[in-house]
Amino acid sequence: MPESPPRVSTPVKILIGLLVVADAGFGAALAFGVLRGLSPWLIGGAYAASVLLAIVGFRVSRARELKRGFASLRDLTIGDEGLRLPAGTLSTRVVPWSQIADVTVRRSARFGDGHLRDALWLDLVTGGGIESSVQRYAPRGRLQPAPPQRRQFEQTAILDPALFDAVVERLRKELRHRQLHAQLRGTPRIR
Known about the structure:
4-stranded mixed beta sheet; alpha+beta; 3 helices; 24% strand
């Protein structure tokens, strides 16, 4: 599996490169007096349009990358019965809401590509924990290699740090909601 989605897509890199070259050429032509008599408003407008085009291209590219990040979460499913997680190659496991004590972030143990990353874990009420395949992106230079004897499952969703944090927060909110609902359902109403 690839390390992580690139920060900017290749077409946007090409677009930004072309805009930089065009702006540099336009600036050189102005500096050498090739383009005389142009209004300062026209010059400023041309530069502003090229910068705006580069910013819009960059933002569109990042939004597309985040959608790919969401698409990689298809193995992590929230349902009424519990949370469905990958349990290994081609298998899933449903963890009932009543068995989940907390959603935490710890180092990966089973999933990944041979490097230790922060992973999403479910802490159980029994004291154990279940690792999910959702992991936070980190540059290769900051990763530690996993122990060689450890069995690895490579079906890992490596997410941008902001998206990873959003997924963890969403699961914590869902868990709190389910726990509160279970408490309120168990207590009798007094009128």
